[in-house]
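Chain X:
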Amino acid sequence: MPGRIENETLLTKIEELERRLRNLESSPQAPRRSQRGGSFRLIPADGNPAQLLYFGDYEDGDDVEQFGIAMYDKTGQIIWATSENQDGIMFPGDMSSWIVPTPQSITSATFVPIAEMALMPRSHSAIYATAAIIVPVGTTAEVRVGDGISSYTSTITVPSGGNGNVILNWKHPFGIGWDQPSASALLGWQVRRASGAGTITCYPPRGAWWTSDIWGATTSPGLSFV
């Protein structure tokens, strides 16, 4: 009798396993799922408390609540992040180089390109750069940045005797993403003499930081002088 009971128990368990397997194979598949609110956290298999990724609600580097995706390194620092409230990648920024196609002494009343940069498909919503400029007393200068076609920052005036930096912090109008082509071959940093007879000394920006407009970039004016 004990052997018969054990066999019946084993058979019952096998039948139960077969039933569960049939249910699993016939259950509805969910190749696509959606999540509203909350967060999914990826942590290392070794139990290290430092997370590697947040999918959903997370706090950015300034302890501001965001909803998006954040990736972390082994020290717990955010190394890549997006947010539902921002265009493009929120962090990190990216650098691009400028070249100097013309002399840096400006007396022309028309805009002259001080530096140019090739536009490639972008992952960021803003661009940041600075360049020094010296304007003699009795003369004013105007500066703008644009693609040479239709997309420009506002034109700013550097006053008589101005000696400082033009700052580009521009929420640009160009497409963002993998499949977005460049709007133009070149992005130009342009300066002209607006009034007076003096010679304007313009330095090219040392670099350009492709970044997020979360850092205060504006569509207009996009430029300032300090």
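Chain Y:
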Amino acid sequence: MLVRHSTFTGNWYGVDDHSGGGLYVDSIFWHHTASGGTSLLGRYEMDLLDGTQIVGCYVGGATASLRGSIEPVDNRLAAPDPRFDAD
């Protein structure tokens, strides 16, 4: 699965991909804080076993990478506010 030029925000979490089959390129994962759910781990942007499939992404939130698997060299972690508009 290829995810490119996408924006994920305001959900319960951004990506939970334990299959390792996803490739996420040039996308935004921003502050997933929706209420509800049952996870004891809290809210997070990404939970990936293999973070090498994340390239050129902009990630911001309390927990960017639940497992610490995302390469900070290839992505912008703890990114500043992208200043979304109404669109």
